[in-house]
Amino acid sequence: MTKKRIKQIFRIVLLLGTAISLFYVPWILVKAWILPLPDTVQEQVNEAIGHGFDGMIVYIDEAGKPPAFYTGGWKDREHKIPADPKSLFKIASISKLYVAVAITKLVKEKRLSLDETLADYFPELIGRIENAEKITLKMMVQHRSGIPNFTDNPAFWENEQENGKKALEFALDLPASFKPDEGYEYSNTNYLLLRKVIDNVLGYSHQHYMKEKILIPLKLNNTFFFAKRS
Length: 230
Hints:
Helix content: 25-40%
Order of helices and strands: HHHEEEHHHHHH
Low-confidence stretches: none
Strand order of the largest sheet: 1-2-3
Distance between the termini: 75 Å
Shape: flat
CATH class of the largest domain: Alpha Beta
Largest sheet: 3 strands, antiparallel
Strand content: 5-15%
CATH superfamily of the largest domain: DD-peptidase/beta-lactamase superfamily
CATH architecture of the largest domain: 3-Layer(aba) Sandwich
Radius of gyration: 24 Å
């Protein structure tokens, strides 16, 4: 094969590689970064809704001015109810912040220790979760445990509503993502287990503890664990 032919093949491969890589570029983010911002906050909210969000509330508290709310999208898409400043939305994984605070409060109360291991609380998980006897609560709080994320298991999504009741099963008997405290990987399983630890230590639900120790003292009157549709 001649050098000229090799160069032609190399150029073709390079062009194909470039074309394929463009498929993985997050063009929505690129567009948002390049284009100038809209003139008003409300216009920015409206534009953000155009990227696929169901509903949005923006609160701005600027010195010397009264607080302002900006809303967009739906409070209830199914029933075509527009979002308003009092709309309630699920906070999803932001709830992990409340779990982390509850863990630290229990540490301060000397009811648990961040150095205790997963196996200390759940000896039945030895052999089911790799390194269970080496993974500490601190590692789970920091997502440095190496425990697989149950939502990364494709089987979980086959019936999310039903499988959510037995979510831990989708993280068992799998190889660790890395050795304890030797990496970082976001894992919902960490906080699923931390909630169970809190329940076991207290003898009652972590929701009740967080309400009494966090929500009520901070007067978070519009933060709920379950919201019933009226």
